[in-house]
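Ticket #4471: structure export looks truncated?
Reporter: QA, pipeline team
Priority: medium

Steps to reproduce: submit the single chain below to the structure queue and open the exported record.
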Amino acid sequence: GSHVGAEGAVNLVSNEADVLAVYTWAPVTTLVNTAVLTGTLISTRVGAVKCTQCPRSGSTGPCLARCDEISNPNCVSADDDVVQTTRSGTQCLALLDGTESKNAEALGIKVTLGSLSDTISMAVWFPTLPISVQVQE
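Actual output as written to the record:
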């Protein structure tokens, strides 16, 4: 149900059965691994929302599902040699730190909440090493 306090409305999920679905999103789904060349960390947030059933307490009106962002999601990369995942505060991050060794056209990052999960696909480009540079005069 919902609890209204001094800060406003807060949706409380009483149990996992109240969650209808989990959906993932990311602001960027194609990463270029320049970290292997520069040592500079590259990351993008992987967000997730949970949609919960609204309570029907004698209401005759429509009951719509409510979707809220998941804090502290559990996220796992299908292959850490392509892209790694970590949690930063309450967020899940897909990151490249230069220790990766290959690319992928479509690598899954799975976000889980209880028994529900969703997977977002990411493309990761990896440079062919060693890089040779030719300078003409």
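Status: closed, not a bug. The export was complete when the record was re-opened. Leaving a note from the reviewer for reference: Confidence is low (pLDDT under 50) at residues 1-15.
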